[in-house]
Amino acid sequence: MIEIARTDDGLTFCILEYSSELDKLRIGDFEYFKKHLGMADYTANFRSWLKRPSVFLMLIIFHGKIVGWTMNEKWNKPSADGRPVFVLRAIEISPGLSRKGHGKDLFVMVSRFLPGHMITKPVNASARAFFESLGFILPDIHSPVNLNDHPGYLILSEERKPSLKSIIMDRFNANILSARQKKFPKELIVENPGEQQDGSADMEGSPDDGVTQERADSEAEDSSEDNDSQAAEDLPVQDRIVNDTEGEFKGDQKMMTPCKCGAYSAGKFLQEGSRCGTAFVCLQCGTERYFLPLKK
User: Fold this and answer.
1) Residues 103-152: pLDDT tens digits?
2) Residue spans with biased composition (Acidic residues) (predicted)?
3) Helix (H, G, I), strand (E, B), or coil: what is residue 180?
4) Of 127, 140, 226, 283, which residue is the least packed, with the fewest Cβ within 10 Å?
5) 2-235: which CATH architecture?
């Protein structure tokens, strides 16, 4: 675990490195992903994500309890300028801490921690307005990332990141850059902020936690509950298959022949009980490709 910041009110911002680090933490009172996506076991999802080197999980911890989190994954397609690309898949703040700016702080910190460009797919108008206030824009012919085959995505280019405003960022910038050098030792650090455009980085007047969890029973039109599902509809298919498949996920396996859906990648699941062995399940459609019984 890499600690990045510790605030005066007891909040700790950190990057998880190993799934075993979750053993000492408790899950906060999150509701949105549980209610709308059936994500009943946050710990299991976090453990699954941490097994993939392409995923980066930043947390907010308060007295040993996870009260905020964001999951970001490296995009497997290159950018035009050669810089890495990361997809913001999900971000959520515990209802008790929402509307206090913690969601904004979490986003600004993870955006500075990750090198290269960021993309995300807002699921509604409120989420889109929030991300546009952070500098995300619709891609055009000059965008460093080709998103022609991914309608609805917004992009935050690397040159716009340094102009994002956050008090906590000013205090702990050195810590964030140190963590970034540790995790991405070969990547450049772009520190020259681009010119701020209208609404691109001015956080004042924008919804503090525009993509964070609001109380589930709120009926107000400006509730941030819908925004908490930012990128929820775009959570990796692999995560849903891993969560739904019986057995312990043991990693990926490239099969010699494609599945009926055309994918080659399969997940290995160690199963016990009446059916003891390893199941190879397509990570695109969930079809079992092969079962290898355990020799007794």
Assistant:
1) 888 999 999 999 999 999 987 887 888 888 888 999 988 889 988 888 89
2) 219-228
3) helix
4) 140
5) 3-Layer(aba) Sandwich (3.40)
Q: Are 58 and 15 in contact (CB under 8 A)?
A: yes
Strands (E), the chain: 2-6, 11-15, 26-27, 55-62, 65-74, 85-93, 117-120, 154-156, 248-254, 265-271, 277-282, 288-293
Domain boundaries, the chain: 2-235, 239-293
Which residue shows structure tokens 């933490």?
Answer: 25
What average pLDDT does the structure give for the chain? 78
pTM of the model: 0.65
Give the helix/strand (H/E) hosting 107. helix 102-113
pLDDT surpassing 50 at residue 204: no
User: By C-alpha distance, which of 29, 28, 103, 105 is closest to 63?
Assistant: 28
| Phi, psi dihedrals of residue 176, rounded to the nearest 5° | -65, -45
- Tens of pLDDT along 265-295? 888 888 887 788 888 888 888 888 888 887 7
Q: What is the dihedral of CA 135, 138, 143, 149, to 10 degrees?
A: 140
To which residue do tokens 């959520």 refer? 92
Report the candidate in 100, 126, 30, 124 with the shortest Cα–Cα distance to residue 71.
Answer: 30
